[in-house]
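Re: Re: ligand-bound prediction request (bumping)

Still looking for help on this. To restate: I need the protein modeled with SAJ bound, output as structure tokens. Inputs repeated here so nobody has to scroll up.
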Amino acid sequence: MNAPFKTAAALGIEAGLHPAPDHQVAVIGLGYIGLPTAALLASYGWNVCGVDVSKRVVETVNAGGVHIEERDLDKLVHDAITARTLVASTEVPTASFYMIAVPTPLGEGNAPDISYVEAAARAIAPKILPGACVIVESTSPVGTTERVAEIISELRPDLVVPRDGSTEEADIALAYCPERVLPGRIVNELVHNDRVIGGVTPACAERAAVLYTSFVKGDCLYTTARVAETVKLVENSFRDVNIAFANELSMIADVIGVDVWDVIRLANRHPRVNILQPGPGVGGHCIAVDPWFLVAGAPAAARLVRTAREVNDHKAVHTEARICALLDAAPEGKIALLGLAFKPDIDDFRESPALEIAEALAHTHGNRILVVEPFTEDMPAALAGSGAELVTLDAALRTAEIVVVLVDHTAFKHLGPDDLAGKLVFDTRGMLRR
Ligand code: SAJ
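Reply:
Sorry for the wait, this slipped through. Here it is.
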């Protein structure tokens, strides 16, 4: 089972293949991945039912709206709802393809929690008919697709469910196909990125490929479900380890008294060096989470991956301590915290180090804090009631003696020396240097 499966061409699958109109896709989970994928599939001619446990999300989507901010998504959803190729429901329908795109959070002790994937499998099981294909897209610990197989087979003893290594002809297909799109560019990357399609058996990969080759313009690469699960975790761990190196360098630079941005800029002029950018820590629901799934699968072996997570988490603590030193240096002054999102130009606050830092400071210095975040109209719940105020950039600059750049949103990039004259400035992103 370690040999790669055949390519799409070898399987006789043509890119751009359009499905029969009665082909239904059920996308379970209408979040950052599920909703764009559902709307995109609808725009490529599939009849799509997006399923979510939240009535509010279902109502918003059925009204042609979106509950998340993502470039090009509102028009895509609006058009699909108007064309009636997309509907949303709290109930799982009978469909030709089921795509599971629900969250897989971290539980106690950074252990992966796949209960939402398991719940989706339980909801699909009573509806699934022979010939259908179940695809897991949720980032998951290795072995999750096999767990989905187990659940469906327990609940549907009438069906032959595919098993790794089994040659028995199965009634349904089961595959793992990780999403690998960048928040802020999801709609574009869904179409243009290469996709890894991991079948529980080669026949399963072939079946799942029918869905992906209908809209993916990148290459579709075939492998086993277990390899595909590992590939996803490795991609995000690779980035986490590399950002950890940059963050560790920034802390080393603080100790030895050199400018980390100069060091990185000059080191990157070496033809084989490409250091990433330090920041206040690593956020988002992917890179700050997924490496733990790899650690959970091989705790003793995954030493570098675990350490990178620890370094990146520690960077937020280190940043908070540096900000506290500035607050002590100007004991009467207000502080402007620029940005709360987990990265520039998005409204996503999940696992955001900027928010974590602001929250910690709000507990100790609430009434000295001015928060500037163009991607929210309301103060996040974590800061509400702390005394911290959400203000415009202009208002913050008028009042604050200390300015900290936590997120390099485009809305802050025009700031120059005149705007910051006479203030204590801490730029965690190197934005003012660019
Ligand atoms: N960051 C730095 N320094 C850098 C680059 C990023 O501190 O040089 C920080 C960001 O500020 C942010 C965090 O890392 O807090 C993650 O941001 P990101 O842009 O690196 O990645 P995500 O989480 O938005 O998306 C990642 C992508 N994975 C990879 O690039 C390997 C995306 O392709 C995945 O689909 C996504 O995770 C996911 O859903 O898994």
